[in-house]
Specification:
Elements (H helix, E strand, L loop, with lengths): L2 H9 E3 L11 E3 L5 H18 E2 L3 H28 L8 H5 L11 E2 H26 L4 H23 L7
Parallel strand pairs: 3-4
Antiparallel strand pairs: 1-2
Helix pairs in contact: 2-3, 2-5, 3-6, 5-6
Amino acid sequence: MDMKDQDESRNVEDVRGSSGGGGGGFQFRPAHGIGLGTIALALIGKQLHWTIVGRLFRPLHLYLDELVASWHELADAVAERAVALGHMPDGQAAAVAAAQLAPVDAAATRDRDVVRELTQRVAQVSEQTRARMERLGELDAVSQDVLIEVLRSLEEQQWMLSAQLDKGPA
């Protein structure tokens, strides 16, 4: 088992018989990954919101506000589920920095580059969410449902962002 797998397995643990997990003995800990990933997306989105330049400045500036609000809502849903099951999530700066989403430059960023950067990062968090969601299904269907909704939202955002890249017909 490599380091990533070890980290992932700590994020969704089956602790049957433990006293504090709630939810039938399961401890739901995706807030370390999924919640932090969406918080990191929100921070990156706001940075790009401030630094975007180009012909599409206005619509992308406004769209970034929508995305940032959505990512905060998704993080909140994941964290609240974790709390309901007895886990206290950590959404502070150090924990978010460890979410392993590469930062963006704090410089003016062309509108097309903003879309490309966001598309890649949303795809990364979507992949992480899908991996955790699949493992979680064996442990806690309600928590898996939370991640299904997170994934649905992220994949829709990824589609809408990538459509703006206009790669043309294949």
